[in-house]
C-alpha cells in the first residue's frame, strides 16, 4: 500500500490544483465531513505548496504519449493502480485524522477514456453513497469520455477540471499529439453548461443534486513551449469569460523526461515567470484589469523586475496621483501597494474622518510602493523625491531582486536584451548601475 | 475625563472579571496604569487594587456594549480577550472608553491606535484559529479521537463549531496544552472544560500505519526541483511542527529539538561562538 501510494502521489504531484475552496456544505448526523468555501490548507510540502487534498492518480498507466508528461506510455517508470475501494478507504482514514480536506482524483488513461471515467465514478460513488462522505472532492474530467459519464461524475464532485496543458494548438500538436484543443474544450463546455443548467434547476426544485458546486478549473504548463505571457494571459481571460472558470493554475515546467522537443533536463523550472502570471491572474479576477492593459504585442512578456501592477502604473503615470480621501474603490485598487483588503479598509476608515499617510500605514497600505501614486488631503508625502531612480528602486522589492539575482532559480539571462528593453530608460541605470 | 491613577488593577483572569475592572474604572472615574490577572502576577511597583468578580456588574457592562456601541463591538471585545496581545486588558479598556464616547462610529476608526491594535490582535487570533482548522491532527484510539494543540491565543472557541460540525458522529477531544483547556465532543454534546494535563497514549498498529502512510504521501508530493524551505516555514511556521506527524517522523534537520536548541545548533554549525547559558 505504501509503495502504491508513493508511486501514485509522485505521479500526481505536477498537478497544481490543490485548493479546496468554493463549496460550502455543513455536516450531517450519520455522515463524515463538511466543506468550507474559503478552503483550508492542511499542510505545506517541502516546495512550499499547500496540501489540502489527498492528491493521487487512480493509475499512472496511460495509453497516451504526451511528451511533457511523466506518465507517458514510453516513459519507463514504475506503474501502479488503486482500486476504488482503496481510494475511498484511504480518503476516509486521512480525513478523520484531519490530514486532508478531501480528495483530488485524477488518472492516466487506462484502456479508454470511458473505462477510466467509470473507474473514477466507482471510487466517488463509494465515498459519497456508501461511506456518506461530505468532504471536498476534486476530480479530473477525462477528455474524450462520454457526456453521460462526465455528467454522472460531476454530480459526485465539488470541482471538475480539464487541463489545457499547453497554451496553444501549435504547442499541443508538437507535444501532445493525442490531444487537441477541441478534445479539451468540449468537456469544458459541457461542464459549463451543466453548471448553468443546474443552477436554474436549483431555483425551480429545492432538492436538485448539485453539479460541481465549486465550479471548474484548469492548468497550463509554462515554459515548455515558446508561447508568450501575452498569449497565455489572453487565453486565461477568455477562459474566465467564456467558460466561467473558477481558477486557472500555472505550472512552471519541470523537465521529467528527455525529449528533443523539450527544454533540457537540467533546465530549472521558471518559477519567477509562473509567479508573475499568478500576479496578473489576480489582477484580472479581483482588480478589474484586462489582459490588453497589462501586455501587448510589442511587450508580450512580463518584466521580471517589477510586478505587473507596478509596471502598469509606471506606464500610466497620467492616471496618478490618486486622492485617498475621495477616490472610488476601483481607482484605489489600481494603486501599487493597495490591495483588496486595504482598499476596503480605506473606504471604511474615511467614513470616520479623513486619512493621512500615517493612518494609511496602520490600514496596511504598503507605503513604500503607494507613496508615489497618492495624495492625502491633496498633498503628496512630505519630503518625497520622485526621480526615476528612486521610483524604480523602491518599487522593486528586495525579495524580487533577490530572486532575480539567483540565476539558478530562474533561467533568464541577467543581460537578456528583451528584459533590458522592457525597462524605462533611466530605470536601467538605477538597477544595473549598482553592479548587481 | 477620568484621572489616571498610579494604580494597577488585579483581577481573576476571567472575562467577567475584566468587565468588572471596566465597571470599577467607570464607577471611580479613574484609569488604572495597568491591569493584571492573578496568574501573571504584578511586575510593576504599583499599588494594586483587587477587583472582585461580580456577575451582576459584569453583566451590566456586557449588555451596554451592543446598546451603546454595536453588536460587532461585543464580538471584537470577546475575541480580543482571547488573543494573546500584550496588555490586552488595557487595550480593551481603552477601546471601551472610545466606544462609549463615540458610539458605533468607533468600529470605523481603523486608523486610531487603540482600534488598530485591537483589530490586529483579533486578526492574529482569527488567523491562528484558521491555521488550526488545518493543523489539528487527530489520532484514533479505538472509538475515540484526540488531538493536542499548543496555540498562542485561546482559539478553542474559534474552532469549536467547525470541528463539531465536521465530525458530528465522532467522539473526540482537542486538548489545548497552552491554556490547559479541552474541547470535548460526543454526538449531540459538546463542551470546553479545564484540563490541566493529558498525555496521549501510544498509537496502536493501525494508527501508526496511517501516520506512516501520511508521511509517505507528504514526502512524495513535494517537487524537489522547487524545494523552498523559507516559503514552507512562512506558510507553516515551525511552532506548529511539533504536533504534525509529517514533520516529526522525517524532518530532515534535528526534528526533535525545540526551537531555541535548534537555533543554538545552527549557530554552532555556522561557526559563530556559542552563547553561554
UniProtKB/TrEMBL annotation, chain B:
- Cite the record's Basic residues compositional bias ranges: 266-277
| Ranges for domain DUF4130 | 87-246
| Any matching Pfam family | DUF4130
User: Taxonomically, which superkingdom?
Assistant: Bacteria
Show the segment(s) annotated as Disordered.
Answer: 251-277
Q: Which InterPro entries match?
A: DNA_repair_put (IPR023875), DUF4130 (IPR025404)
Matches recorded under NCBIfam families: SAM_7_link_chp (TIGR03915)
Q: What is this protein called?
A: TIGR03915 family putative DNA repair protein
| Source species | Paenibacillus tianjinensis
Amino acid at each position: 500500500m505504501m509503495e502504491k501510494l508513493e508511486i501514485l502521489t509522485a505521479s500526481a504531484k505536477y498537478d497544481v490544483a490543490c485548493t479546496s475552496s468554493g463549496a460550502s456544505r455543513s455536516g450531517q448526523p450519520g455522515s463524515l465531513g463538511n466543506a468550507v468555501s474559503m478552503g483550508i490548507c492542511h499542510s505545506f510540502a517541502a516546495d512550499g505548496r499547500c496540501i489540502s487534498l489527498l492528491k493521487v492518480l487512480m493509475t499512472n498507466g496511460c495509453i497516451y504519449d504526451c511528451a511533457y508528461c511523466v506518465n507517458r506510455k514510453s516513459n519507463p517508470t514504475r506503474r501502479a493502480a488503486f482500486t476504488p475501494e482503496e481510494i475511498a478507504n484511504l480518503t476516509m482514514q486521512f480525513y478523520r485524522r484531519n490530514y486532508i480536506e478531501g480528495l483530488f482524483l485524477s488518472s492516466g488513461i487506462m484502456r479508454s477514456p470511458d473505462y477510466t471515467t467509470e473507474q473514477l465514478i466507482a471510487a466517488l460513488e463509494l465515498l459519497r453513497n456508501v461511506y456518506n462522505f461530505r468532504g471536498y472532492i476534486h476530480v479530473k474530467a477525462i477528455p474524450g469520455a462520454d457526456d453521460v459519464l462526465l455528467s454522472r461524475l460531476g454530480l459526485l464532485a465539488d470541482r471538475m477540471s480539464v487541463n489545457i496543458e499547453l497554451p496553444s494548438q501549435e504547442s499541443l500538436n508538437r507535444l501532445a499529439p493525442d490531444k487537441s484543443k477541441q478534445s479539451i474544450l468540449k468537456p469544458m463546455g459541457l461542464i459549463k453548461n451543466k453548471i448553468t443548467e443546474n443552477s436554474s434547476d436549483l431555483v425551480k426544485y429545492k432538492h436538485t443534486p448539485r453539479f460541481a458546486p465549486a465550479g471548474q478549473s484548469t492548468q497550463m504548463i509554462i515554459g515548455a513551449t515558446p508561447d508568450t505571457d501575452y498569449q497565455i494571459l489572453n487565453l486565461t481571460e477568455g477562459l474566465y469569460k467564456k467558460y466561467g472558470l473558477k481558477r486557472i493554475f500555472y505550472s512552471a515546467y519541470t523537465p521529467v523526461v528527455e525529449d528533443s522537443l523539450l527544454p533540457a533536463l537540467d533546465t530549472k523550472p521558471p518559477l519567477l515567470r509562473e509567479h508573475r502570471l499568478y500576479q496578473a491572474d489576480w489582477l484580472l479576477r479581483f482588480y478589474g484589469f484586462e489582459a490588453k492593459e497589462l501586455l501587448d504585442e510589442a511587450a508580450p512578456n512580463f518584466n521580471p523586475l517589477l510586478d505587473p501592477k507596478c509596471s502598469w502604473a509606471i506606464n500610466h503615470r497620467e492616471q496618478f496621483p490618486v486622492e485617498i480621501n475621495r477616490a472610488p474603490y476601483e481607482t484605489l485598487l489600481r494603486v501599487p501597494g493597495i490591495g483588496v483588503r486595504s482598499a476596503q479598509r480605506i473606504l471604511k476608515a474615511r467614513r470616520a474622518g479623513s486619512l493621512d499617510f500615517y493612518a494609511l500605514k496602520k490600514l496596511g497600505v504598503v507605503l513604500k510602493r503607494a507613496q508615489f501614486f497618492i495624495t492625502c488631503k491633496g498633498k503628496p508625502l512630505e519630503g518625497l523625491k520622485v526621480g526615476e531612480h528612486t521610483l524604480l528602486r523602491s518599487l522593486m522589492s528586495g525579495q524580487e531582486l533577490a530572486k532575480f539575482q539567483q540565476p539558478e532559480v530562474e533561467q533568464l539571462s541577467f543581460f537578456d536584451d528583451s528584459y533590458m528593453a522592457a525597462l524605462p530608460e533611466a530605470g536601467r541605470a538605477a538597477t544595473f548601475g549598482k553592479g548587481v | 475625563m477620568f484621572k489616571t491613577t498610579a494604580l494597577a488593577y488585579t483581577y481573576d483572569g476571567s472575562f467577567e472579571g475584566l468587565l468588572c475592572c471596566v465597571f470599577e474604572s467607570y464607577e471611580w472615574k479613574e484609569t488604572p496604569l495597568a491591569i493584571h490577572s492573578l496568574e501573571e502576577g504584578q511586575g510593576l511597583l504599583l499599588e494594586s487594587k483587587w477587583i472582585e468578580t461580580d456577575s451582576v456588574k459584569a453583566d451590566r457592562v456586557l449588555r451596554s456594549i451592543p446598546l451603546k456601541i454595536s453588536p460587532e463591538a461585543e464580538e471584537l471585545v470577546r475575541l480580543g480577550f482571547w488573543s494573546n496581545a500584550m496588555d490586552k486588558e488595557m487595550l480593551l479598556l481603552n477601546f471601551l472608553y472610545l466606544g462609549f464616547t463615540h458610539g458605533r462610529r468607533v468600529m470605523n476608526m481603523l486608523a486610531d491606535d487603540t482600534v488598530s491594535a485591537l483589530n490586529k490582535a483579533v486578526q492574529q487570533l482569527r488567523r491562528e484559529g484558521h491555521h488550526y482548522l488545518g493543523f489539528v491532527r487527530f489520532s484514533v484510539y479505538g472509538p475515540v479521537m484526540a488531538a493536542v494543540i499548543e496555540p498562542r491565543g485561546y482559539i478553542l472557541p474559534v474552532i469549536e463549531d467547525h470541528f463539531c460540525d465536521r465530525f458530528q458522529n465522532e467522539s473526540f477531544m482537542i486538548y489545548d496544552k497552552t491554556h490547559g483547556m479541552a474541547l470535548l465532543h460526543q454526538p449531540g454534546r459538546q463542551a470546553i472544560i479545564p484540563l490541566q494535563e493529558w498525555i496521549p497514549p501510544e498509537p496502536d498498529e493501525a494508527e501508526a500505519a496511517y501516520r506512516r502512510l501520511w508521511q509517505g504521501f507528504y514526502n512524495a508530493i513535494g517537487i524537489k526541483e522547487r524545494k523552498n524551505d523559507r516559503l514552507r516555514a512562512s506558510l507553516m511556521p515551525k511552532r506548529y511542527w511539533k504536533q504534525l506527524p509529517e514533520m516529526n517522523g522525517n524532518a530532515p534537520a534535528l526534528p526533535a529539538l525545540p526551537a531555541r536548541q535548534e537555533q543554538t545548533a545552527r549557530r554552532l554549525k555556522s561557526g559563530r561562538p556559542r552563547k553561554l547559558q
